[in-house]
């Protein structure tokens, strides 16, 4: 299984950006999928995840601004980001996990820069 994240770029504060994560296999097999981000000098943090059944969780700092979704028919996952802030600047990684006892599959990361 391979994951390919895309959609990063430069956006002004208050702007919006959408990230996509394409999965080579069937995401129906993935129990949980989500997004981490890592800002310079910080640890990677989980910001959003979605279960096979569509149950979502968000980090408090992005709740109400970011929306995670998955399309099982297209083997795609998305992260719609609105009202972006400079502190959202980071490399964003998508992941997928078929079972809690198994390791995650990871995408390569896509850089999001929020700056005027």
SSE layout and pairings?
Blueprint: E1 3-6, E2 9-11, E3 17-23, E4 32-38, E5 45-51, E6 56-58, E7 66-71, E8 76-81, E9 90-97, E10 105-106, E11 110-114
Parallel strand pairs: 2-11
Antiparallel strand pairs: 1-3, 3-8, 4-5, 4-9, 5-6, 7-8, 9-10, 9-11
Question: What can you see in these coordinates?
Answer:
The protein is mostly beta strands. The strands form two sheets. Strands 2, 4, 5, 6, 9, 10 and 11 form a seven-stranded mixed sheet that branches. A four-stranded antiparallel sheet has the order 1-3-8-7, with no helix packed on it. It contains no helices and eleven strands. The protein is 0% helix and 50% strand. Strand 7 and strand 8 form a beta hairpin. The chain is globular, with a radius of gyration of 13 Å.
At a glance:
The protein is an all-beta fold and 116 residues long. The chain has strands at residues 3-6, 9-11, 17-23, 32-38, 45-51, 56-58, 66-71, 76-81, 90-97, 105-106, 110-114.
């Amino acid at each position: 299984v391979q994951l390919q994240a895309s959609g990063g770029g430069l956006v002004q504060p208050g702007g919006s950006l959408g990230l996509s994560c394409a999965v080579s296999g069937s995401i129906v097999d993935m129990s949980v999928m989500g997004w981490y981000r890592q800002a310079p000098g910080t640890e990677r943090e989980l910001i959003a995840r979605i279960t096979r059944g569509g149950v979502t969780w968000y980090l408090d700092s992005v709740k109400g601004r970011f929306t995670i979704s998955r399309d099982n028919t297209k083997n795609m996952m998305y992260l719609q980001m609105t009202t972006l802030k400079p502190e959202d600047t980071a490399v964003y990684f998508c992941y997928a996990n078929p079972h809690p006892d198994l390791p995650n599959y990871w995408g390569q990361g896509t850089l999001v820069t929020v700056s005027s």
